[in-house]
Amino acid sequence: AAAETAVAGGGGAAGAAKVMEAGEVVKRLRALGQPATLFGETDGERYARWRELSTREEASKGQKNVFQLKLRAMEATDAVDDVYMSKADGVDAGAKEKRSCFEELGLVDNLEEKTGDKYLFVSRQIARVMLRWKAELEARPTDVKKTAKGRSATARWEETLENLKPLLSQLKGNTTAPFLLKSLVEIFNQVEIKEYVRANDVYLKLAIGNAPWPMGATNVGIHLRSAREKIGEGKIAHVMNDEQTRKYIQAVKRLITKVQSWYPTDPSKMISS
What we know:
Elements: H1 22-31, H2 43-59, H3 66-83, H4 93-104, H5 118-138, H6 142-145, H7 148-172, H8 178-192, H9 196-208, H10 243-262
């Protein structure tokens, strides 16, 4: 009966208060794509199940799978393109949009020009690899692009770009953290001379750090030492700072791997896959 509360017949935490009518709980479970009632389930248990499922749904809202989103968007675009073929210049609007990202940052021209500006150096290195990668994807035949593997490769590029955008913005505004900037410069310097293992070592140090897990008392005494926060600066695991940082540092690792595939060298200097 719709008038009955969801906690009727339930005990424990689920039966603590009369919160929602049973009919409303059923409606919300169906909205989540869940069965309305499990075998032998009471109203209170149904309500508790809905609470747990809705909590999980809320927790996962901010964690978007960019790769899957891009893949679905491409499948939808391809379906439309099959009906309305654009023969304007042979380049899709998505490609123009992605190129404009680097144009807005002023990175398309003078990519090979040497610069002493560390922020500009890292930005140009990223742009150079991303644009070549994009050109490689665009050069594939149309039928290859529309295969599952072809879409996956394009989605991987778009996901990488999406993850790198916050870093590119920081570099443009000269707001990148000094230790992070120093590590990125070192990574791309090593990549330029095909020292991929060394570049990977810098990446690992940047990503996971080399600080031991603290055991026991880590701060004895009542006064903090001056500049104490700088003592372990090189041991900070930047990848753990936040989700955004983790994504763009992992995207940098993807660029190292990509360059290695284009310019192989002595096996002892390459990262084994």
